[in-house]
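#random but structural
TW: two for the price of one
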Amino acid sequence: MNVPVPQTYLGRPVPEHIAAGWRTWDGAAWRQMAYRSTNRLNPPDQRFSVLPPGGMCVPHLEMRRGYRDMHFNPVSGDRWPGVPGSPFTIVGPDLSAAREWRRAEWDERASEQMRAIEEMCLSGRSSQCGEARTCEGCRLLACRCGQ
């Protein structure tokens, strides 16, 4: 898949091996590291920038999409997985920092779940896998690349 990759990210040159995997978890981890190296704590959400790997079945793609689409609610401030009754209620003078930390926690845990679903599906050990799988080349169910 041809995805435009910037030559620099936050002022840092993008290494060739990262540019090749820009829309993978490795690329997302590099972008988070680059963000943190600017002395900012909570990097932006990377879940939407990572494409699912080729070879995934439809049920697991839907599960992955469900975690990708989970978002922190800044109004309630609930911790992962979004149920009320958090033992740590946000109080104090700097509510925005606490909310931003919880948002980053949500992003991180949802990303972990997405990676776990990918690994389970591609391992071949899941009884939930269906017959239809995405193409290894174009990552679409209706293959357009001929692989």
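TW: number two ↓
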Amino acid sequence: MAVDPGPYDLDTTGLILGPRGDATPKALTPSFYGELDSEFGGFAGHVLVSKHSFREAWGTWEMHPKGDEIVYLLSGNVDFVLWQNGREKALRVDQAGSCIAVPKGVWHTVRPREATTLLFFTPGEDTQHAETPPASGTS
């Protein structure tokens, strides 16, 4: 069955792109992220398209081992911080319409300089989270 073309509000709905190019909308609920693995076969080969707004720094770091994450700035001013070679590398993203590609396997976090809205294209299979980048996470 073909997907309903929408429109969708990315404030309330995530879009999951499947390994065959199919798009599946899924309501953003408190259990959204926990349900992705069970509903989409471990999220293998899938990409989550989502929009998030931030005023404060993330309290954690994350890493996507199965693919590069594309992050597109809709509005705001943010430091996207990568953990590379055992130290932080901050990428300033302050022009709406610009984007970065976080390499697969690289730990990263976000530190907004003002209210910021980002569009994410996340290969979510086996995503990991940590309070600090692991000592061995020196990609």
